[in-house]
């Protein structure tokens, strides 16, 4: 167990094998994974996934904590033995992201467990194995979540319209990565036409196990997140936020508009 703040000094005290828990509820369903990181004579960590559990989207909030308890029990571990907890913080389902981050904070703070948040787009980039990757996920409403990654680090992540995302596809170089089964890939829009010219790599949803693999480098470098600052990577503003930004300052009383649980999806 380490401190809640980030930095290389924490990484230097990390004992191996190090156990890591991951949560992911950004898509239509969610999951948790428990993994173990080993370092055998080198700087690169090797990940062993000890167990996973898939959770239905509508039951994620009620089933998440029991699933974590089951994974830890099956591995003969206590929560305090975790070296870190990783959460996929979006983009995706507003409700799922909120539940994941709330659970992350509820588990990490009392036990003093270090935390990391990883982007769903970063998981696809990591899974591609390419030094430069452009990742796309359908965002609904004809829009796309798009991210550009170089050597595992985000250059940018944005919400784009169909024409905007297609223009980026025609301009950017590197691997193009999409998620297998993404309904947006069947939309027939201009992005689909641009993808046909790019020969993209289609990967299954990385899930919680993929989040552990993606987070290894940051763990070994001590690049953690501060518990007080961690937030959802929504990319899309809520409907309430869009309305508020379009109105003159002071035209609405404070609290008259609030984000619903579904308007960011």
| Biggest sheet statistics | 5 strands, mixed
Backbone structural class: alpha/beta
Strand order of the largest sheet: 3-2-1-4-5
Number of strands: 10
Mean pLDDT across every amino acid position: 86
| Rounded Rg | 19 Å
Strand composition percent: 25-35%
Q: Superfamily at the CATH H level of the largest domain?
A: ATPase, nucleotide binding domain
* Total domain count: 2
Which architecture of the largest domain per CATH?
Answer: 2-Layer Sandwich
The top level CATH class name of the largest domain: Alpha Beta
Low-pLDDT sequence parts: 1-7, 255-265
Number of helices: 8
Distance between the termini: 35 Å
- The general outline is globular
Write a concise synopsis of the structure shown.
The chain is an alpha/beta fold. The chain has helices at 8-12, 60-74, 94-111, 120-128, 162-171, 190-198, 207-221, 239-246, and strands at residues 18-24, 29-38, 46-56, 82-88, 115-118, 132-140, 143-150, 153-161, 175-179, 201-203. The longest helix is centred in the middle third of the chain and has 18 residues, at 94-111.
Q: Can you put this structure into words, describing what you see?
A:
This protein is α/β, with parallel strands linked by helices. It folds into two domains: about 10-120 and about 205-220, ATPase, nucleotide binding domain (Nucleotidyltransferase, domain 5, 2-Layer Sandwich), CATH 3.30.420; about 120-205, ATPase, nucleotide binding domain (Nucleotidyltransferase, domain 5), CATH 3.30.420.40. Helix content is about 35%, strand content about 30%. It is built from eight helices and ten strands. It has a five-stranded mixed sheet with strand order 3-2-1-4-5, sandwiched between helices. The radius of gyration is 19 Å and the shape is globular. The two termini are about 35 Å apart.
